[in-house]
Amino acid sequence: MSFEFISLETIQEIARQYGYWAVFLGILLENLGLPLPGETVTLVGGFLAGSGELNFWWVFASAAGGAILGGICGYWIGRYGGLPLLLKVGKFFGINEEKLQKVQAQFGQNASKAVFIGRFIALLRVVASPLAGIAKMPFLKFMIYNVTGALAWALVMVSLSCLAGNLIPLEELLAWVAKFGIVALFLVAAWLFVPIWLESRQVKGG
Q1: CB neighbours of residue 199 within 10 Å
Q2: Which CA distances in Å does 162 have to 43, 128, 159?
Q3: To 10 degrees, what angle do helices 122-134 and 97-109 make?
Q4: What phi, psi does 181 have (nearest 5°)?
Q5: Phi, psi dihedral angles at 50 (to 5 degrees)
Q6: Among 79, 156, 84, which Cα is nearest to 121's?
């Protein structure tokens, strides 16, 4: 998630002033689709924990809690009203309903992996839970992957920023995390769309 509209200095000041609430609300609201740098706030929280300004375990709990609650809200949004919105978005980008249904089916077959892995990818972190709801993934199964994914993501992000924050500048750490997210996003997009593209080629060829 880009934080160009909010300076890093401002994010650090918010994290210092509001502490664990900033981390919790930042990642919660980001998960709900608001253009907020939730992951950046989490990394800053871990950085402050490394310097002794915040407690590591409270930062971890705040990040994990916000991610879990955000995922739950996203799931129910998708379950009870997400498909019509998805169709409208698809039309805006010129993707017809048939292709969207294929994407939904492809996602449904791999929903558990997407919910878990999506925690580490900015865009997928926002859409994975609603898509799981749209695909009618059983809620208990969703919660298993939502919770484990959120815990794993929070532990990695907070630990990384806490430890690496003492070795490299925070700006450099954020840049590396952003680059990883872009590469991972392309890989996930290929995982979803390449099978559909190959199938359409076979239909045309047949």
Answers
A1: 12
A2: 8, 27, 5
A3: 100
A4: -65, -40
A5: -65, -30
A6: 156
Q: Which residues in 66-84 are b (16+ Cβ under 10 Å) and which e?
A: bbbbbbbbbbebbbeebbe
Instruction: Output the six-digit token pair for 144.
Output: 């298993």
Which residue type does 144 have? I
Q: What is the pTM of this model?
A: 0.74
SS3 content of the chain, % helix, strand, coil (to 5): 85, 0, 15
Sign of the dihedral through C-alpha 47, 50, 54, 60: positive
pLDDT in tens, 8-19: 788 888 888 999
- In tens, the pLDDT along 119-137 reads 887 777 888 888 888 888 8
Write out the two tokens for 162: 């806490």
